[in-house]
Amino acid sequence: MRKNQTFVWVLALFAFSLFLLAGSVWAATIAPLSVNDGHTRTSIRRVTLKIHAPKDFRLMKISNDEKFTDRSWEKVVQQKTWFLDYGSGSKKIYIKFRDSRGKESSVSHVNIYLTPPATFKSDFEINDGDETANTRSVELHFKLSSGIEKIQISNNSNFSDAESFTPEENLNWTLTSGTGKKTVFVKFIDVSNKIHTLSHSIDYTEPARYIPEESVIKGQSETLYYLGLDGKMHPFLDLATYHSWYKDFSKIVYVSDAKIQEYSIGSAVCLRAGTWLVKFSHSPRVYAVEPGCRLRPLRSETEAFIFYGDTWQRRIIELSDIQRNFYRVSDITPYEDSEDRDQDGVPTDMEDFYSSSDNRADTDRDGVSDYEEIYAWFSDPLKKDTNSNGVSDSQEVRKGLSPVSSQILTTLPEGSYTLPVGTLFQARGANKSSWYYQYAPDYAGSISESTFKSYNAPTTFISRTPFAFVLPRRSSFSSTDLKIHFTPNMYHGSVLRPL
């Protein structure tokens, strides 16, 4: 009996050892990068990457080019949307990682085959096929075949005023002014970079007693309105919002209340991006305003200092709870609540690794968030003074010193901080006339003083950042790009459009 028991125990231990060995081999052979859950073919350039970083590696670079040309380090995430290069055939995606000491991993890659569709079947309608329109703002409804990667829309056949969009079923568009037949031209660009051009027309009738859109209107009451391209009156709810767009009252059009009543009232005008910082009563959270009535939460006082300098608190204004309804708060984490309970951008498994709290964004309450400590500074989220020199991590950054060494800071760690979209900033050490505009999360571009003034850009809100940012930068923007950002705007789905 005892021999049988011993034999059973030996078998059990042997089986358990095999299980552990199999688990170890499986863990060791997990690829650092996979695409579309292992599928080998796709008909569109947009793919989903799954990333498995080696232990202690917190930054990554991803590229379609094995030399990683023009790619910057970014924090490791578990999943990322990616776009393949144009053209059919086998595509390679490359990845490498870097740890807190600057050590880089070897380069890995994954393959997928891009096969464009054989036929083109896309088309569009204006206002669901209506023959007439009484506002310049119209909706384009698209019927899209697979493989369409980009849409360009214009009011001219030469596409001189073209705007580019990611394909969506519906897109808002603005016709040219003046009564008459209006033709909209659309280019459909597929995965092989082939272009298919279509056009459709609609008759537009300008309203009687026409007031130009994009005018500021005032009736007999104190309320100021912005007449949008949608033909609606959009109220300014306070003077702070008005002055974020206009420096004075010289461009106001005065009309009777009866005239205002001829128009529908639209949503309120939101603060201009890159101007005031916002907070609401009963909450200490401070937000940066981004285009389209979006609010980006600031992670900490340290982040606010890095973006706006010592005077960041002077930018804060408090808005009413009613005004809050006109804004949408952006996520600062790509993870679901179950993966990131405090929604600070640090997933639960990473919080567990560092023993930081997944219920508080700043575990040691030193004024530097866990996210910044882990991904930007490589400091200890459990210690207020990582390098034990008697100065807190937050104070060191504000003094221009590294929180983990005695190094003097001039440039921020690559991939660590990204200015809020819409920020007008002057690079550290640059000439006073060298200004930049953060047009999107992943790029900024230089902009001249004359361009600033032509769009009423408030130069008093230029951020003079205490550190240099390592960013991929475009050399210039088109007038269409800037016009959408520099006039009252809102999102139609995922697309930013003039109000």
TrEMBL record:
> So which residues are the signal peptide here?
1-27
Region (Disordered), start-end ranges: 335-366
Superkingdom, natural source: Bacteria
Q: Does the keyword Signal apply?
A: yes
Q: Give the record's keywords alphabetically.
A: Signal
Q: What is the protein name stated in its UniProt record?
A: EF-hand domain-containing protein
Name the source organism: Candidatus Magasanikbacteria bacterium RIFCSPHIGHO2_02_FULL_41_13
